Amino acid sequence: MAKITGVVFKEGGKVYYFAPGKDRYKEGMGVIVETSRGVEYATVVIPFAEVEDSKLVSPLKPIMRIASAKDKEIHRKNLEKKDEALKIVAEKIEKHNLDMKLIDCEFTFDGAKAVFYYSAPQRVDFRELVKELSQVFKMRIELRQVGIRDEIKMIGGLAPCGRECCCASCMPEFKKVSIKMAKNQGLSLNPGKISGLCGRLMCCLSYENDYYAEACKKMPKIGSEVTTPDGKGTVVNVNMLKMEVRVRIDDKEKDIFTYHDFPVSALKFKTPHRSEKEEKDEEVPADLKEILD
Fold this sequence. Notes:
By secondary structure, this protein is α+β, with helices and mostly antiparallel strands. The chain has nine helices and twelve strands. It has helices at 69-95, 127-137, 148-155, 166-169, 179-184, 191-194, 209-218, 276-281, 286-289, and strands spanning 2-8, 16-18, 30-35, 38-51, 63-66, 101-107, 113-119, 140-145, 225-228, 231-239, 244-251, 256-263. Helix 2 (127-137) links the parallel strand 7 (113-119) and strand 8. The model has no long low-confidence stretch (mean pLDDT 88).
């Protein structure tokens, strides 16, 4: 087991592990660390913990020091420069008539480099733009293209549920989501209802997928025939949270039918088991293919 301190470089960002120094850290404390980009300012989110060696990329770099008042002032000024820098770069992009959307920017702690993030439908030749920006900012300039999901993570926004997007608030890393997760939960395969602001499948589909995946194996399929305590019937709905099944039972003699809810444990039915190949080859509606990663 290795001793670590977890830090983030931006709110809601990925947690990075560093070797704790001799100081004692508190959650929310500013620290100075050395990264592949150079010296950076970070915020402590895990003051101290022990992690299995197999989960670490060794060797861990140590935390250099707790941020001083001067360090915090430098970090504050770097953040304040962002809005003005974005405005200047947006004007330069328009001047060069480049098909790119500026999203965000970061200044390294030592002020040696500025990183500007953008999205674009295709590759952009920004060599002249970089030269001009280097002259304006008097530092190294890096333009980094990001995908649509990363764009939403950076700018944030309100998701269809009314809360802030998970990727921008509480999800350090993107999780893999698939159409199968929506099917497991019995959701409508309407792109407008299962896609987020980014136009891709909502990240939250993965949150309870393990439960629904197991529940699906124990439930009959809608439209299948089951044997109930009241006779044979056809499944019309399933409730995987209550583990209940709604069954339509036909009375052919009286030419009527009734609906009854039964716990799945009271039913007898054949559970269809599909092979991985059948699930993989299952046709995806054309209007859903556009929102798949």
